[in-house]
Amino acid sequence: MGDVNLTDILSRYHVPRHRLTVADYRRLGEARILGKDDRVELLEGQLVDMSPIGPRHALTIDLLNRLLPATLGEQAWLRVQNPIVLDDASEPQPDLAVVQHPWSGYPDVHPRPSDILLLIEVADSSLELDLGAKLEIYARAGIREFWVVDLTRNRVLVHRRPHDGRYDSITTVEVSGRLQIEALPGVTISAAQIFI
Q1: 3-state secondary structure of 124
Q2: If we measure between CA atoms, which residue out of 141, 181, 145 comes closest to residue 165?
Q3: Any idea what the CATH number is for the domain that residue 165 is in?
Q4: pLDDT tens, 10-51?
C-alpha cells in the first residue's frame, strides 16, 4: 500500500481531533512524557517535530547572538531558542526573539505577541515550514516583524505589517544589504556578518 500518512487520511474525513492547549503541553513536560531531548513545539494545538540543528544553522544563530545584543543595548532583550506564547494553542520556540524588557507578565510568563519586536528563524531544512505554517501563524498572531534567514540562498526575507493572516510587506535583503529592526530605529546589522 506504500507510505500512508495518517494526517492525510484524517484530513479527508470529518474525524474529531483532540487539540492540545499550552497548559496541556506544559503538563506533558512536567509529567516527563516529553523530555528535554524531545525537540517539539506546539503549533495550532499539535506537537510538531523541530528540525535537527546543523552546523551552519548553529553558527548563524551564534553570530546573531553576538551581533544583536551589541546593537540592541538596553532597548530590548534577545532570547535564543526560548518559547513564546502566541495564543492558547501555540507555543513555538523561534531561533531568536527580540522582546521588550520587561515583557508583560515578566518573569512569570513567556513573551506574547505584544511583547515581541522581532522573530527570527534560521532556515535550511526547515525553510518550507518557516515560510509556510510558521509565517502564517506568526502573521495571524500579529508578530510585527519576522525574518527568515534563508541559508539555502544566502538572503534574509523580512516580513512586516501583519494583516489578515499574512504580511503586507515582504523585502528580500541580500548579503550586501543591511537589516534594520523597524520597531527600533537605528538598530541595524550588516547581512554579510551573518552569512559566512
Answers
A1: coil
A2: 141
A3: 3.90.1570.10
A4: 667 766 677 888 888 888 888 888 887 888 988 888 888 888
